[in-house]
Amino acid sequence: MEADEMLALFDHEMREHARPDGPGTHVERVGDVVRQTGGADDWNGVLWTAPDLSPGHAESEIAAQVEHYTARGLGEFEWKLYAHDGPAELGALLTAAGFEAEPTETLLVAPVAGRAAPVELPEGVRLRNVTDAAGVELMVRAHELAFGTDGSRLRHRTLARLDADPDTFAAVVAMAGDEPVSSARMEMHPGTGFAGLWGGGTAAPWRGRGIYRALLAHRARIAALHGYRFLQVDATDLSAPILRRLGFTALGATTPYVYRTAP
User: Fold this and answer.
1) 143 lies in a domain?
2) What class of enzyme is it (predicted)?
3) Which of 105, 171, 251, 254 is 20 to 30 A from 237, alpha carbon to alpha carbon?
4) Domain, as residue range, for 45
């Protein structure tokens, strides 16, 4: 499949016809946008916009989404803007409306086939599947060590997903003895060919030893067992070069624009 065909398939299955990513969320198309709404600890935001969106209509859609989310008392929501979304000035319109652009990521996709080969782990490191609250705590600790950010929302979302829909979610943590040093998640989307990879991060002292690749291969094996054809990642500048070397194809860029209603 050519890159433009893959991008069109991704837009159709994962954005225009997106499924809720958690038990407390709701996805709907309203006007020219598809949005997800949940609670304060869920991901809230715009996933897709109509390809023929005009600048004038974009301004009214932006105002409508600000009204929708702020009326629910949410502290923030995101407009997930892809480089090929129109109109061309949509990013500038979002900024003018009070959104803040976060670092741009690369949208990468690869076939599941060929990505699931076993990878040798460093001596003393093992992988543990996250299936209970104790495993979630280890995963959150590894995430905080890798990224330096608070893992409270990650804890909430993971516990909720494991409780409500464990068959479409997988998480794994790499353990060096009793210490969690890396973790990653995968969200599988029934009715699509895509499994999304999220959160792959390793504590600084353990980087460059193959743990990231091992976590990817582990999740690819799970995706293959469930019949998924493609792996999808929104990759940071740190991860994108690794994924390209592992056979992922860049389909474009995506920038989160975040609207915060509270400091």
Assistant:
1) yes
2) transferase
3) 171
4) 3-105+254-260
